[in-house]
Write a structure and sequence with these properties.
The protein is an alpha/beta fold and 487 residues long. It has 13 helices and 19 strands. Bound molecules: fe (ii) ion (2 copies).
């Protein structure tokens, strides 16, 4: 089958002869086809759509609207002070910590670290002040409280939930009765390896739970911002599906060369650009990936990244962490993108390279940056959580005070002496990526932001029916969320 027709057919879109001939005559039919597919999907089309020549006109009108040279103004951003004062601080970055060998002894200290940090947070709750070590539990006690790590979650044939809870003294089975509807519902969001508090009654070998507690987050005092921050992730430079045009438009906008007056005013106010991983597509990330690459060398991918990011005006500080496609080690916490692979990128003076996760202070705004690999595990383990609603996953992770609670599934976690994925400090902003779908929510005063992608739908995403949000950039404009489109 012809390549263009095949591309549309795989999406369930039939292409009319006239539309096909017009597409074939274009400068870059492959990119144009990908963009059209994304637009059709975005407009709710897909299976059994017939792409006509008229539709092509409509779709290109949308593109031309953005390309319209009347909107592209002369370079020279308005109101941008030439010399900017940055109050930028790194709060946590695991890149330079020494790493362990992954021995079993490290596993014990890793889980001890997780348990003791989260127990300290749980202990602050009045209901858990008098918690007892599991080994000290006595039968027939009507009011006990314990803190432990969940080793296993089971559902009995009578549909009650059983939690195997462990602390540093012993193990106990906690029963959540299904008649206790509210608690049973709450227990559906529990995951293996998270640390919780339980209030209940000791009955024989079990503790029958009357309440379950997460470490939780308090409502935070929102801080005023007199500047703006743009958030991006999952650029996937080097992939055939990287949307270079959209990225270039984004760069033009941030430089003050493109957009409406309002949009240009926002651009002029941008002080920081945060990039939450998957800067490049990488090499050998999944079987058969090389067929989807346009740049098949990791150094060259970062060279291209340096060219593209190098276009950004240098009075914007760029904060960059790796994702699972970058050349960092795969186990989290991932150290910063290594300089040996990304020399040209390191030569840009306005880029800060940090670990995944890391926490920074952007002029006093505490920003926790995490790529989001654990969202795969959360979406698979918890009913009601999905890639589309990563804001709900972020909310859960904040309550659990851990960025990747489930150990040993799809998210490789390094068993360090310390567990660096515990959220010990509550941020003003939590910025993530990985799922390629934008999400935003303000939760207890915290901005939860997922920044989508600059990559059109991949073969892998087609299989799982994941429809990405491409070229849509969330901007925190003096504390107000705005989504800018660069398609
Ligand atoms: Fe990605
Ligand atoms: Fe990713």
């Amino acid at each position: 089958m012809n390549e263009i027709i095949g591309k549309f057919a795989r999406e369930g879109i039939l292409i009319e002869d006239n539309a096909y001939f017009r597409l074939k005559e274009m400068d870059d039919p492959a990119t144009a086809s990908s963009e059209i597919i994304v637009k059709i999907k975005k407009n709710g089309g897909g299976k059994f759509t017939l792409l006509t020549s008229e539709m092509l006109d409509d779709l290109f009108e949308l593109t031309e609207e953005i390309d319209n040279p009347a909107e592209i103004k002369a370079r020279g951003p308005i109101n941008v002070p030439r010399e900017r004062e940055f109050d930028f601080r790194v709060i946590t970055d695991t890149s330079k910590r020494s790493y362990t060998s992954g021995e079993i002894g490290d596993m014990i200290s890793y889980f001890n670290s997780r348990f003791s940090c989260l127990r300290d947070l749980l202990k602050r709750r009045p209901e858990l002040k008098s918690h007892v070590p599991i080994a000290d539990l006595r039968g027939g006690d009507d009011a006990v409280s314990i803190i432990g790590i969940i080793n296993e979650i089971r559902t009995t044939k009578n549909n009650h939930r059983m939690l195997e809870l462990e602390d540093d003294t012993g193990e106990i089975t906690v029963v959540v009765h299904n008649e206790n509807h509210k608690l049973f519902e709450k227990s559906e969001k529990l995951v293996r390896d998270e640390v919780i508090g339980v209030q209940g009654a000791k009955k024989g070998r079990f503790v029958v739970a009357s309440e379950i507690f997460h470490p939780g987050v308090p409502r935070i005092q929102e801080k005023e911002m007199d500047f703006s921050v743009a958030f991006i992730s999952d650029v996937h430079i080097g992939s055939q599906t990287f949307l270079e045009d959209a990225f270039t438009k984004f760069v033009k906008w941030i430089n003050g060369d493109f957009g409406t007056e309002d949009q240009m005013n926002i651009a002029a106010d941008i002080k920081y650009l945060v990039v939450a991983g998957d800067i490049v597509d990488g090499i050998g990330i999944y079987p058969g990936q090389e067929k989807e690459l346009i740049i098949r060398d990791i150094n060259e991918q970062y060279e291209e990244a340096a060219r593209l990011f190098g276009e950004i005006r240098d009075d914007i500080k760029i904060v960059m962490i790796p994702g699972n496609h970058d050349a960092s080690r795969i186990a989290e916490p991932q150290p910063a993108i290594p300089e040996e692979y990304a020399k040209p990128l390191y030569s840009l003076k306005n880029v800060e390279f940090l670990s995944n996760p890391s926490m920074v202070s952007l002029d006093g705004i505490k920003t926790l940056i995490y790529h989001g690999r654990s969202f795969d595990d959360m979406a698979m383990s918890v009913n009601g959580l999905s890639h589309e609603r990563s804001d709900l996953i972020m909310e859960e992770l904040l309550e659990k005070r851990h960025l990747a609670p489930i150990y040993g599934e799809r998210t490789p976690l390094a068993s360090e002496i310390e567990d660096h994925l515990v959220i010990d400090d509550v941020p003003h902003i939590l910025h993530t990526g990985h799922v390629h779908i934008n999400a935003y929510k303000k939760y207890k005063g915290i901005h939860l932001i997922n920044s989508g992608t600059f990559q059109s739908q991949t073969e892998f995403q087609k299989i799982y029916n994941i429809v990405p949000t491409c070229g849509q950039v969330p901007v925190l404009n003096r504390g107000v969320m705005k989504l800018l489109e660069f398609n």
